[in-house]
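[Q] Does anyone have a clean structure-token version of this?
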Amino acid sequence: MQICRVLNVLTAAAVVLALPRLASAQVFESVGGRAQAMSGAFVAVADDATASWWNPAGLATGEYLSAIYEKGRMTEPAEPGLDSPSTRTTFNDFAVAFPALGLSYYHLRISATAPPDSTGTDGPNRQDPRTAGTSVRSVLVSQLGTTIGQSIGDYLVLGATLKVMRSGAVSGISTDAAPLDAADGLSPSHKTRGDLDVGAMATLGHLRLGLAVKNLTEPTFATGGTDSVTLHRQARAGMSVTTRKKAIRQGLTVAADADLTTTTTAVGEVRHVAAGVESWTARGKLALRAGASANTVGERRPAGSVGVGVALTRALYVNVSRVVGRDKSVTGWSTGVNVAF
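[A] Here you go.
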């Protein structure tokens, strides 16, 4: 019995070493085109339906109705090859929010690859991934959430997103020329868990201070064998200054965020600092966004972002964003359709 336990531990360790750790790869910046366009400086800005992801307390500061559908992808590196680890995150989300209640659904697939020999040696024993196959793994995370908020006095709002989550992971070997596509085609088993995100937002005139904590209970989704998923707790703080007075789609907003925890991704550990700006022009018909971020763990790895929001009607507008740079944990693109009243 003891020998079997030792063998199980060694097998689990081999899988973990062969593939990037995806269990913690769900960073704050995984969702939200508007936030991504500001390089993730959004915890103290969140005032639309994506507040259910970024900061539940921001829900109370938004417009009367906000509904968002978004789709995006982040690939690390941008042109993955067979000889180096790579990962791809695709997301689809829908969220609708009133000042006191929000409903949201977020769906993420995080796929990764690693050559059979990930030691980086060039000796005769190194396997060619074109013939030996590439290790692949795919993680699915689906989140159905209900967000509520409560004002404490005139300046402070506390919020929480109650989540029902389904997640699972599956690993395999691919001999395809595009192993990330093969990983995307895997179908992991799922487990269901409950979890909680919490947030706080303080408003002092034109200054806002925000704090958000995700995955409060650190749920684990064990689907058998070594393919388990753990969503580790993440905390982020931010501040923003805005010139707007009443309407959300007006004026200039400048924001800064900092991660309070470290997250493990396929490209290494990250703890981000970010700064971003959003400017509404043309009487609220056009939004210009930009930002910059850097990793404060190990190599700095800066990244930059740009984005545009265009109002098609008084209530309907679209957002697009693009993030580029050396920090491959956040680079990618997103598009979204927003309805707001």
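[Q] Thanks! Anything notable?
[A] The helical segments are 2-18, 33-37, 51-54, 129-132, 179-184.
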